[in-house]
């Protein structure tokens, strides 16, 4: 089946048969292909060189025209949504609805970027000098390096690339070594759009395949002014000093440890649905997955009992099959990480429900799990770490201030939410002294952000913002320009500097 999907997307059998990077499907462990990785001996620098040349041409193309290329790319995505969504499922293991949803997110950001291509505005600022005009202009920045994680193998690139391209930048993408096929296919779709566009510079968008070493080379290259990196906090901590050492810019989208507060007034039905989707969706492998649940003591017992019933009925299985809600974990390391966290949780006083391996006889070479609910006595050490698996830690609380302290009491700061009908609690949650996260929702779960808003988190999540709002500014350089249209040369700050 993978051969048909790849063919439909324009990837030839030859391109995926002889490489050194062996791609296995998390669905059953079967080999999907072999992709050639780029050599660390010069290939990255070579591609960056092409990217610099492409940038110099692209930056002079009017932005609305650049938007036309992104519009055409969006059309390719629309026409190939089914095939690319299926490939996402085959390679990353998320259920087909989520694979399709990921491609929809790419389409949405393309639409957003096309509109944006006519809205890259600056300010005109009053000058203190007579006969002068001062203005702020946003100019293209240069090649943008995009390093992405396995769990959103194509959407994260699109969030970056669609904006970077309309902003006049070229793009070099290093996808996760676990998902090279979706990157290859996306690049093919981009190339089709480029052909329709007519005169896009060669090398405007390129892919470099490989692991950490290749990513490090991209990060270290002084010709790449911005590195947008999505992945674990561990990766961000290794990468940020490399970019900073050359005084480059980095946009970091790192690990989350997202929480929900369920207040006494909450609509428990809504909360239950939101919790289930956010905690077990994508098998707990979203950066915005719900990991910590703080429930008011008056409703704790009732809600936990309901969740256990709902969890017991969740269909775990092949993500390509209709009705499946939870697919496999990405690999054995993810499974081991989950089991290790559950043992720690037990040692720290947790009561674990679920969490065992599932469907082992049917899929001996894949790792399916029962999502776990862990009732914890306190927010202990294990809860402070992001374990990239479906583990939901639940803790009772007695007052709002305590719940807020618990929710903010971790090093990550990506997404957060509260379920309440109490307006004061809702307002306090989103106020300055409320949630310290980049995303704070009321009566909505922590995952599934819309592309219209800026996406990203605080603290060890890295501080980057992508996608909507004015995130585009990260992909441009700001220039303050003052024009003197008078016949005099008045100096700022009233300085007298007479040379006559
Ligand atoms: P990972 O950190 O293992 O890898 C991410 C990417 O970084 C890969 O392409 C990898 O090859 C590359 N990489 C690793 N070390 C590097 C280094 N030193 N220099 C340069 N590149 C390097 O992450 P993963 O397992 O693929 O993804 C899961 C993680 O990503 C989770 O922590 C999740 O929360 C996070 N994530 C965050 C967001 C967000 O928007 N905040 C979105 C998706 C995933």
Question: What can you see in these coordinates?
Answer:
Helices cover 38% and strands 19% of the residues. It is of the alpha/beta class. Strands 12-15-16-11-10-18-19 form a seven-stranded mixed β-sheet, sandwiched between helices. A five-stranded parallel β-sheet has the order 7-6-5-8-9, sandwiched between helices. Strands 3-4-23 form a three-stranded antiparallel β-sheet, with no helix packed on it. Strand 8 (226-230), helix 9 (233-245) and strand 9 form a beta-alpha-beta unit. Helix 4 packs across helix 5 (96-116). Bound molecules: nicotinamide-adenine-dinucleotide (NAD). Nicotinamide-adenine-dinucleotide (NAD) binds next to helix 8 and helix 9.
Characteristic terms for this protein:
500 residues; alpha/beta; binds nicotinamide-adenine-dinucleotide
């Amino acid at each position: 089946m993978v051969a048909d999907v790849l063919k439909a997307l324009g990837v030839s059998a030859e391109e995926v048969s002889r490489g050194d990077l062996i791609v296995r499907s998390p669905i059953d462990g079967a080999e999907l292909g072999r992709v050639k990785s780029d050599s660390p001996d010069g290939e990255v620098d070579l591609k960056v060189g092409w990217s610099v040349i492409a940038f110099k041409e692209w930056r002079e193309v009017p932005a609305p025209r650049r938007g036309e290329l992104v519009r055409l790319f969006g059309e390719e995505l629309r026409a190939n949504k089914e095939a690319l969504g299926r490939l996402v499922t085959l390679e990353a293991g998320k259920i087909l609805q989520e694979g399709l949803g990921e491609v929809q997110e790419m389409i949405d950001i393309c639409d957003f970027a096309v509109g944006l291509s006519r809205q890259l505005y600056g300010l005109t600022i009053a000058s203190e000098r007579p006969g002068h005009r001062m203005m702020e202009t946003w100019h293209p920045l240069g090649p943008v390096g995009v390093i992405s994680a396995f769990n959103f193998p194509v959407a994260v690139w699109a969030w970056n690339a669609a904006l970077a391209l309309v902003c006049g930048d070229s793009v070099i993408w290093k996808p996760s070594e676990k998902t090279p096929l979706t990157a290859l296919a996306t690049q093919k779709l981009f190339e089709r759009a480029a052909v329709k566009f007519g005169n896009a510079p060669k090398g405007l968008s390129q892919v470099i395949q490989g692991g950490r070493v290749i990513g490090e080379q991209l990060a270290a290259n002084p010709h790449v002014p911005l590195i947008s990196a999505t992945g674990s906090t561990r990766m961000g901590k290794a990468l940020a000093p490399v970019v900073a050492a050359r005084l480059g810019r980095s946009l970091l989208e790192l690990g989350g440890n997202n929480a929900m507060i369920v207040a006494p007034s909450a609509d428990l039905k809504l909360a239950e649905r939101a919790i289930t989707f956010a905690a077990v969706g994508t098998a707990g492998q979203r950066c915005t997955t719900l990991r910590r649940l703080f429930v008011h003591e008056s409703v704790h017992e009732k809600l936990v009992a309901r969740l256990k019933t709902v969890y017991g009925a969740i269909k775990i299985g092949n993500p390509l099959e209709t009705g499946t809600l939870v697919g496999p974990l990405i690999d054995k390391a993810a499974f081991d990480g989950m089991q290790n966290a559950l043992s720690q949780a037990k040692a720290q006083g947790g009561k674990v429900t679920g969490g065992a391996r599932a469907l082992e006889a049917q899929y001996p070479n894949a790792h399916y799990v029962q999502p776990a609910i862990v009732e914890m006595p306190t927010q202990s050490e294990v809860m402070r770490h992001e374990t990239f698996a479906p583990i939901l830690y639940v803790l009772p609380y007695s007052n709002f201030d305590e719940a807020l302290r618990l929710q903010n009491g971790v090093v990550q700061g990506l997404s957060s939410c509260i379920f309440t009908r109490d307006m004061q609690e809702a307002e306090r949650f989103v106020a300055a002294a409320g949630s310290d996260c980049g995303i704070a929702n009321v009566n909505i779960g922590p995952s599934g952000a819309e592309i219209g808003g800026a996406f990203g988190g605080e603290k060890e999540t890295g501080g980057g913002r992508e996608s909507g709002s004015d995130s585009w500014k990260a992909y441009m350089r700001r220039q303050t320009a003052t024009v003197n249209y008078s016949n005099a040369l008045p100096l700022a700050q009233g300085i007298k500097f007479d040379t006559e």
